[in-house]
Amino acid sequence: MQTVGKMMQRPLLVSAILEHGAYQFGKQEVVSRETHGTLHRYTFSDMASRAKQLANALKDLGLQPGSVVGSIAWNNYRHLETYYGVSGGGMVMHTCNPRLHPDQLAFIINHAQDEVVFFDSSFAPLVKAVAAHCKLVKYWICLSDKANMPSIDGVELVCYEDFIAPFPSHYEWPDLDENSGAALCYTSGTTGNPKGVMYSHRAIALSALSACLPNVLNISSQETVLPVVPMFHINAWCLPYACLIGGAKLVLPGPKLDGASLYELMESEQVTLSAGVPTIWMGLIQHLEQNQLSFTTMRRTGVGGSAMPKALIAKFNEVYNVDVRHGWGMTETTAVATISNISAEEMTLPESLRHDLVAKQGKSVFGIELKIVDEDGNTLARDGQSQGELMVRGQWIVENYHKADTQALVNGWFPTGDIATIRPDGVMQIRDRTKDVIKSGGEWISSIELENAAAAHPQVAMAAVIGIKHPKWDERPLLLIVRRQADFTDKQELLTFLEQRVAKWWIPDEVVFVDSLPVGGTGKVQKNELRAQYGGIFSA
Questions:
Q1: Active-site residue, selected from the candidate residues 146, 351, 439, 505
Q2: Is it the case that residue 221 has pLDDT exceeding 50?
Q3: What is d(CA 54, CA 171) in angstroms, rounded to the nearest whole number?
Q4: Distances from the Cα of 229 to the Cαs of 74, 105, 282, in angstroms?
Q5: Burial code of 345-363, b = ≥16 C-beta within 10 A, e = fewer?
Q6: Percent of the chain having pLDDT more than 90?
């Protein structure tokens, strides 16, 4: 018979994260660039007091445990207060992606049954477009002071500062079940309606704890963290929680995510760690190159959302002396599930081989298990060669979608829709999405690897590869290029460049130069739009 441990059973709660940050690192700063351009600065202790005012205000409205509260907002200090005031009070924080089509935004607000929606003043036109279709929303609260309040015809607005001002900064957080819902995010899927993932307090706390580990993002009170990843995208990869656990200074960039604005904020606030998608870092590096700038404090960047080109990893490492932590996760995994890291032994490898390692998605963090399976569900070898659908399970992985009628898991594992390989040492590499992998003549071509190869060309700013129907080969790759210089038009030079880097039969059948690529709210290239536009190029 097993012996039972005699330890306390205390729930892992969002409110406990807030209290820990306020008590242990109360003087640590939160710096926020506001929608109107000014910088706001206060402490963890200040933030906790205002989150308690908000919790009192929401309770006064009559909201109950389990009530859903939405937000349409940038990364700023008032949005941060809603993270803690809503979830800590037992309600569910539903962060909405403002880059969704208004029809989809109205769908998720209604599907989630939001009773209150907080929004930034810059999103007033979006609120105007959806408010009439969101009958369950009783209050639209603008994250603003009185002086900067917008007006919307036909919509009664509440000013956030006026909303919380009458209430005390003392609040007894409820002792919740750690498995109760704390936050709700919807997938950024490109087909059909988004699907909701309801995160528990336990999942958020464990995921945020993992981010603090040295082999993940190494968040501590010695760091200054700038989450460029939006707070509406998988809770900013749980960084607003992890910074309070680790005691790191938190810098919130607001709506200005261009290279110049990010660099100015990084330098002025002495940022040591930032996190975002590759498209953001491309813009930042371009700004540095054009203006012959360098980083004075940046040491590390977390990258996810899509594969980071090896050429960009090399620039961060070799030119700017910034360590890249390349990770993988999705809405369904709460935040990071795997991350690349270089061991002491691997640090002795040539730079090019180290960049190859970082370009992979890395090893699973503790609490997460991975496997790959073939089309029949058979587990494939962890040999670095066999590729199949990536399956994941763990402490902060979705079990079922919000209000779904069907089970999300297959034999206890979540099917990610990614094609991957896993090496014997546990290093995982995403080869492609199942919907993006190119099937040509019965063989697979990885759009990701082709994109990374093209991105290494000095004239390529961004690259996207899509599979296009072909009368002979089923599908063939089409390469779309955003040029660094508008006068570069040499398709053959690009194809010759690729011939040195990928198999001959992978070489795209055509190259198209474009001014820009369609990018969604989470920084991913919207390949469905490209397929719709160029789908007939090989049959014309």
A1: 439
A2: yes
A3: 10
A4: 10, 19, 14
A5: eeeeeeeeebbebbbbbbb
A6: 74
pLDDT at 505: 79
Q: Of these residues, 34, 115, 223, 332, which one is catalytic?
A: 332
Here the tokens at position 536 are 């007939």
Which entry of 95, 187, 331, 334 is annotated as an active-site residue? 187
Residue partners of 472: CB distance under 8 A and separation at least 6: none
Best CA proximity match to 263, nearest among 228, 311, 231, 232: 228
> What is residue 191's predicted lDDT score, i.e. its pLDDT?
53
The secondary element (H helix, E strand) that includes residue 371 is strand 368-373
Q: How far is CA 298 from the centre of its chain?
A: 20
Of 419, 430, 393, 387, nearest to 408 by C-alpha is 393
The answer to whether 525 and 464 are in contact (CB under 8 A) is yes
- pLDDT score, position 435: 73
- For the chain, give the number of residues: 540
Q: How far apart are CA 306 and CA 59, in angstroms?
A: 40
- 332 annotated active-site: yes
pTM of the model: 0.85
Going by pLDDT thresholds of 50, 70 and 90, the confidence category of residue 321 is very high
The more confident residue out of 444 and 421 is 421
In the prediction, which pLDDT does 500 show? 85
Radius of gyration of the chain from Cα atoms? 23
Q: Are 96 and 71 in contact (CB under 8 A)?
A: yes
Residue 444 is among the residues annotated as catalytic for this protein: yes
Give the Cα separation of 40 and 382 in Å (integer).
Answer: 49
Provide φ and ψ at 490, rounded to 5°: -85, 90
User: Average pLDDT in the 104-112 region?
Assistant: 95
For 256, half-sphere exposure in the C-beta direction (CA atoms, 13 angstrom radius) is 17
pLDDT at residue 333 in the model: 96
Asked if residue 104 has pLDDT above 90, the reply is no
Structural domains of the chain ordered from first start: 438-534 (3.30.300.30)
Summary mean pLDDT of the chain: 92
**pLDDT value at 189 more than 60:** no
Confidence band for 536, pLDDT divided at 50, 70 and 90: confident
Told to judge if 439 belongs to the known catalytic residues of this protein, a careful annotator would answer yes
CB–CB of 299/273 below 8 Å?
Answer: yes
Packing angle, helices 491-499 and 447-455, rounded to 10:
110
Catalytic residue among 444, 475, 510, 524: 444
Q: 395 CB contacts (<8 Å, ≥6 apart)? A: 202, 203, 206, 367, 368
Tokens read off for 248: 């790191």
In the residue annotation, 416 being an active-site residue is answered as no
Enumerate residues 6+ apart whose C-beta is below 8 A from 236: 75, 227, 229, 230, 275
According to DSSP, residue 380 is labeled P
